[in-house]
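Researcher: Here's my situation. A collaborator sent me these components and asked whether they could plausibly form a single complex. I don't have experimental data yet, so a predicted model of the whole assembly would be a useful starting point for our discussion.
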Amino acid sequence: AQTVTQSQPEMSVQEAETVTLSCTYDTSENNYYLFWYKQPPSRQMILVIRQEAYKQQNATENRFSVNFQKAAKSFSLKISDSQLGDTAMYFCAFRHSGNTPLVFGKGTRLSVIA
Amino acid sequence: DVKVTQSSRYLVKRTGEKVFLECVQDMDHENMFWYRQDPGLGLRLIYFSYDVKMKEKGDIPEGYSVSREKKERFSLILESASTNQTSMYLCASSNPRGGGTEAFFGQGTRLTVV
């Protein structure tokens, strides 16, 4: 079975600083997709960024970027210029290609401090 | 704007009651999912459905059942609610064409069983 591990239950960062959230996963497949979701206190889960395993280039979305290391099965999220609105739970998720559900990690609670 | 709507944001039920959690999506997605979210455990898959009248067990189906009579609606049923089913329940939907498509989430239902 696939597993996703987030080793940092809680993190904090000063406003305007950079923070990196860690995620590792386990799979024997070669083709899959990775996601980072954000869940703010309002509870609405929203997609932050996604990465296709067959793409070597790391995905970037504005202040959010990933460091995808396929051989190490690592998928970390970097948030640059942290803002108060980035305070949320962050979940790393994995999905095989095709018709399969997302598998989630246990989450990292990020607090951005003014 | 894409939307997944859960019928209740907060729900309080008594032990032994039959509980229905409703989820409706307006994106014509084939795939729908029910997750349970608990602190420190992340999101765990209860059931999912790839088509009308079709269902598959997830990781923690015990004590739950589901119904999908129409494509847009996916119901989670607690046959006889117990206090250990007190939790946050999240519904999601996705397009099955391509594993990289994101899942869209509802706002969650916080269920308390007393």
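Model: Some features of this prediction you could bring to your collaborator: Chain B has no helices and twelve strands. The mean pLDDT of chain B is 93.
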